[in-house]
Amino acid sequence: LCAQCLQCLQSPRMDLCHVPATREKGWYLALMAPNVKGPNYAWLDPSRLYCHPQGLQDCLADLLQPFQGDAIDMVAGIDAMGFILGAAAAATLRKGFLAIRKAGHLCVQTEAQPYSDYSGRQKLMELRTDAISPGLRVLLVDQWVETGGTMRAAIELVERLGGVVAAPPCVPTGVAAICMESSEGGKWIRERYKCSHCVPPRLQPRFDQHQ
After folding, report:
1. What is the pTM assigned to this prediction?
2. Are 149 and 120 in contact (CB under 8 A)?
3. Burial class of residue 3 in the structure, from the number of CB atoms within 10 Å of its CB (0-12 exposed, 13-18 middle, 19+ buried)
4. Taking a C-beta distance cutoff of 8 angstroms, is the pair 151, 117 a contact?
5. pLDDT digits (tens, 9 = 90+) for 61-91
6. How far apart are CA 71 and CA 47, in angstroms?
7. What kind of fold does domain 32-101+129-208 have according to CATH?
8. Which family does it belong to (predicted)?
């Protein structure tokens, strides 16, 4: 990452005006803040990136570029941080947005799927049953894919209700996240679905090692 971007990362306050002269793919990753609270928290906080107007726009452009020209009927975002990128992607594509919720929040009929999140905690995910019709082409969006458990549960819910996340040999919709780590679960998703993320290949090992 460029020296100016690293200075932004090290600054105690956000500089929402600075934009590097050359905006290479992933320049905005330096806007994310490292964990300063210990092992009970995620190793990196992307929410600072969302505060930067150009950073958010470029992140969205990079995420959606592989899907240009694809037939997408709806964007679905995963509770909770996936709501930010998912809703922004839906607005950009002029599509509807579907919230995939953690259990206990939806007051309508739902389909549920158990899963383990990145910390190994057992959770339950819910999706309203009236939003997806058979053949609906869905782009799934989350902030991060670490172990892949959360995204895989969302895929299973969408497909169980008849939605299409990917349908080879047709042009698929798929999965988008800022980072998709090279974990066993991440590889399972990459092998089966069209995926998009923002981490340049040269930086992928550092993200996989949480550096």
Report:
1. 0.90
2. no
3. exposed
4. no
5. 999 999 998 999 999 999 999 999 999 999 9
6. 29
7. Rossmann fold (3.40.50)
8. Belongs to the purine/pyrimidine phosphoribosyltransferase family.
Is the sign of the CA dihedral 57, 59, 62, 63 positive or negative? negative
Count CB atoms within 10 A of the CB of residue 112: 12
Residue 164 CA: distances (Å) to CA of 9, 48, 136, 172, 179: 39, 32, 6, 8, 22
The residue ranges of every structural domain in the chain are 32-101+129-208
Q: What are the structure tokens assigned to 37, written together?
A: 């609270």
Burial of 9 (0-12, 13-18, 19+ CB in 10 A): middle
Structure tokens at 50: 């969302």
Handedness of CA 26, 67, 87, 155 (dihedral sign): negative
The sign one gets for the Cα dihedral 169, 148, 161, 138 is negative
Q: Tell me the C-alpha to C-alpha distance, in Å, between residue 64 and each of 143, 151, 155, 172, 173.
A: 14, 18, 18, 13, 11
Look at residue 2 in the predicted model and tell me its pLDDT: 54
